Protein: Tetratricopeptide repeat protein
Amino acid sequence: MQPRNMSMSGVVDLAAVKAAGEAKTKAEQARAETARQGGAGAVPASSLVIDVDEAGFESDVLQRSTEVPVVIDFWAEWCEPCKQLSPVLERLALEYNGRIVLAKIDVDANQALMQQFGIQGIPAVFAVVAGQALPLFQGAAPEAQIRQTLDQLVQVGEERFGLTGIAVEAGGEGAEQQEAPAPPPGPHDALLEAAVQALDEGDFAGAVQAYRNVLSDDPVNTEAKLGLAQAELLGRVGGLDPQQARKDAADSPADVDAQLAVADLDLAGGHVEDAFSRLVETVRGTAGDDREKARLRLLELFEVIGGDDPRVAASRAALARVLF
Structure:
């Protein structure tokens, strides 16, 4: 499991099934028709970041995805993590210079699209490649991880679907923003990148230490708090035998450590509600140190998902009812 479910495994699996072959054929046909009509020509840099609504989704996203991978940023004005993530995605869309297009969808104004994609918390980032939709990640994430995901998306688009991107005009609206120098590195960027690299290499202890080093100097650093919770989770589940852990929890429902282990496995496997529910019930059925241990683990798992996720809000309310 990559932090925040940031994995391109879905793309690879998608390309392996029949639907992906059909999507590739349709993409090739669409490009051939465009070429027959004289080609699409270069587009202004300003068209690399677009606002999309339900009415324009087919033309702005589905049709465009036959030429270039379209990254979708589901956001809302009230969402604080969205305000951190969206500017990064917009800057990267310009930097990738036609290899991706960023489509921004306001979930408050486009509830049908939100439901269609099964969005349960924002920010949520998806991609559409040759008409095929797939999740990329949810919540704010370190820029290094976002770049890695976009690089993999571009690679899959080229290798599996023949999407080589679109030509971008030199100059014109948006060019100054595209050519602007990258912002100076932050004081903790090197440590955060080292933590991401450690995660990629499976060195969870190293990632934990790197994130803790950041937090010792900047206790409110959002990326480090999120990364630490994820790295600790990955470290805990890495040594578990899932089948044995679930058997132990079923055989010994009063064993708090056994329940914590299965909750970790559930969250790592994407079964968020199951993990939260198990720990709420563990808190309900325990007292003293055992109850506190279960409560703290639940709070740690909230950090992994992000406080803006509605599943976290619902579970916080359930925990409060149990405690008070």
